Predict the 3D structure of the following.
Amino acid sequence: MMKKLNCIFVILFILTAVPAGLIGGETVLLDTEHIQRYRGNTGKWMHFSSYGQASAFIHKCGTDINTVCRINNVSSRNISGSYIFIPFSNSYVAELRKKHIDFVSMISTSDQFIWPISNTELITSGLGRRWGKLHPGVDIPSSRGTIIRASMEGKVIFCGFAGGYGRMITLEHRNGYISKYAHNSVLLVKKGDYVQKGQVLALVGSTGHSTGNHLHFEIRCENIPLNPLDFLPEKSNLEIRHPGRLY
Ligand SMILES: [Zn+2]
C-alpha cells in the first residue's frame, strides 16, 4: 500500500467555538478558538518543531518554560514535537484582544487517517495474536496527559468507561470504518459530537487493563480489526517492538 505524508495543515477561521469537554468542571475549548482556557490558564495549543521555536514563542507570550512544563506535565526536552498548551500572560491576552485575533483552528485536508499522537516514534505492541488472543490494535506509549487527536473526522458513538479498555472513545467514519482510542485519563468530547480530523479527543492515561501510560488505537471496518499501520502515514523513524503474528 502506497502511503505518502501528504497531510496539509491549513488554518481555517471558524466563527463559533465548540465546547469540547470538561476538566475539573471547567469547559475546555479545543481546536476551534485561538484563545482558550486549560487547567485554569488562558492560552493556546501549539506544536513546535524545535526547542528554539518553542522558547521564542513562550517568551513572546509573557510566560516561561518552567510554567509551560508544569502545566503540560512534560520536561523541557519534550516541549517540541507534540501539542502543548502555552499559557498567556494577562498583558499578552489584552494585546491580542485589542488586535481582535480570534477563532483559529487547524484541520487536515488530506483524505488519510492521521496519527492520533503526532510525534509517535514507538509502537510497543502491534496488531496480531499474543498469548493466543488477538490484540486488535496498536499500543503507542506516551506520557500521561499527552493529547490524542481524531485520526479521521467522524461521529463520537462511544465515550466512557469500557472495562479493560478503560476510558475510551469510539468514532464512526465513512464506509463502515470506526476508530477506537483506549486507556485515556481524560475524555474531552461527548457521545453524539461530530469531530474534525485532528481535533483533540482525550488525554493519554492508563485506565482499564493497562500496565502504563499509552494509547491503544484501533481501526476497524465492519467491526473487523485492521492494521492501523496500513492506514497511517509512514514514519521513517518508527520502531515496532512486538509486531504481532496475524495467523
Ligand atoms: Zn493495546
Summary: The first strand starts at residue 9 and ends at 13.
